[in-house]
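Hey,

Quick one before I head out. I ran the complex with zinc ion overnight. Inputs first:
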Amino acid sequence: MFARSWFRRPADHAVEIPSPRDEVHQGNGSARITPQPNSVSAGMISQPFTADHDSHVDASHESTNGSEVSDLLHEREQIVDRIKHLRASTDAYASEFVEQILDFAHRVKTSDLHLQPTANGLEVRFRSDGVLHRLGEFPAGASSSVVSRLKVLSSLLTYRSDVPQEGRIDSSPRPGGNASSATNTTEIRVSTYPTLHGERAVLRFFGHGNQYRHLSDLGHSAEVTESLTDCLAETSGAMIICGPAGSGKSTTLYAALRHLVQETSGSRNLMSLEDPIEVPLDGVSQSQVNAAAGFTLQAGLRSLLRQDPEVIMVGEIRDPETASIAIQASLTGQLMLTSFHADSTVVAVSRLLDLGLEPYLLRSSVIGICCQRLLRKLCHCAVESRDSTDHFGLPIEWCRKPLGCDDCNETGYRGRVIASEFLSLRDAGHAAEILDTKDSRTAYRIAVDAGMKSIWECATDLVREGVTSPAEVRRVLGVTMRI
Ligand SMILES: [Zn+2]
């Protein structure tokens, strides 16, 4: 029987846990795992993607209650047991293995699955609440065929294992799998990468959870929520949601679209161009790019502009051409909603300038930028600390720090909360100053002095309220852009 401590381990604790490998390999009964900062567990290779997936992680920040955690524990025990009974020597091993792990991923709504070949076999990890967890290490000799099976399913070249490849598993029912609704609505992106012991694969799941959230339910402060709704009342301009991968950007974008659907009751033409469509929304004409067929983000956006849109949501701006078309559109009578991979609001501004956009264009088009992060919430078992070493340099007198109990599987955390900041560029004076400042730190200072409540301040307030811990703030926000 597993201890309940595998799930949502606090980043600053080392915990002795039974390892699923032991069930497979009849090992010595436990593994010591010391999770590292920045969501990467010990010994884990860093993520190959940084910019192009996001809200698929959001589903996990809904998994906040104890029964879901118990379900996850149960599912995990079951999958390890099932894989243990697969015979690695048979031809069917790879397809059965893949079917099992995909089924597991759908059941627990994980955002990512990592398959890492090791000297002894294939190690499988999955991400939950933004943190990687180990599922187990499975018999050696199977890794190449398991990854090959994934390559077949995602239409990659199976005879090329010496170069990285990217593909997707069609969201239609899996061969041999259940045609469940979850399977049908989830897109899976597959990335392979050659490593020392063979090809590593990362699977990213989009559309899990399919949650219906509204702007006021997201957990942004009243101030940020009001700024967001103010922007949505505009008929032109661009509103940008930024943050790193896994910060819940798409959840906020979808909530913004839902807000518009409700507010406009069909009187505005709402269109989206996404890659991929993560959540189907009534009242919005959604399209998914298909680069292989020439329906790229850039080409699609140009054609979309001839469809008389009034509000356009572009999943994410990633390249100069998309940025240019999107910004031009926002200047000509369309409200543009999009996300952008940047660590803070002012970094988003400087990165957009780096993409070749002229400051005057940004000044007249971007009406607001929201930057957000997800922080794990402390469980009720948290304890008070006045020891400054627990404060991680935050300007606080006391804090609560994680302890661990049955309810939180000894991790000290349950669920996640948003920390965010909103930079309004509608005040021409401050906008000009920020856009003309080359140094992000100086620009950030100008924004804060102009009244923006920084994400650090927001996170520090959450610590003061005992919602999260300084260690979690440090893990998620790092040390950058602290003013
Ligand atoms: Zn607890």
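The first strand starts at residue 15 and ends at 17.

Talk tomorrow,
K.
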